Batch of 2 targets.
Target 1
Amino acid sequence: METPGRVTPEAPFEPSQPPVIEGFSPSVYSTSEGFKEKFIRKTRENPLVPIGCLGTAAALTYGLYCFHRGQSQRSQLMMRTRIAAQGFTIVAILVGLAASTLKSRP
């Protein structure tokens, strides 16, 4: 007879396997997705995010170039442009997130 405070597990714990959660599938896609495929899929889902990232990188690069050449006015302008591009990227991420949430609702 077991003692009342003791609980016996139903199945042994296997740390090499992911836990089984009812109604949850850890992988949406049946095949393994590489970096290139995932990048292309994410870019198609929300094309404004990569555009914002490229704009941010371009403004930063040109701003640093102008700073190095001693063009402080142009450098300041490009740093402000970088901030605007970062804001655009954040807004694009939030809009894409809201759109995908609304699309996934039944």
Note: Residues 35-104 form one domain.
Target 2
Amino acid sequence: MAGRGKLIAVLGDEDTVTGFLLGGVGELNKNRKPNFLVVEKETSLAEIEETFRSFLSRDDIGIVLINQFIAEMIRHVIDAHTKSIPAVLEIPSKEHPYDASKDSILRRAKGMFTAEDLR
């Protein structure tokens, strides 16, 4: 990775992943593994978890974007991730709007501040 930045990985529905791929996010690593997964109705929970964990372990990925409704399916895995890199960001999809109360990273960040800090 010398001289190059880190990649953005995407786990999402077809519309979300397609949008990011059209924006130039798609890459294959030296082992020909993509940095994205289109989650469909047939995609197993095990495959989603395995892909998410593989993204966390790759040293070429700096940010993991995941549709929030998919994050809810593997919340226990996301909550167990405590490292700052790769950062895990939950994003909305066309069918499922963003709900800040479900975002574990946002809840964690809010917990770092007291009401006094926010005044």
Note: The mean pLDDT is 87.
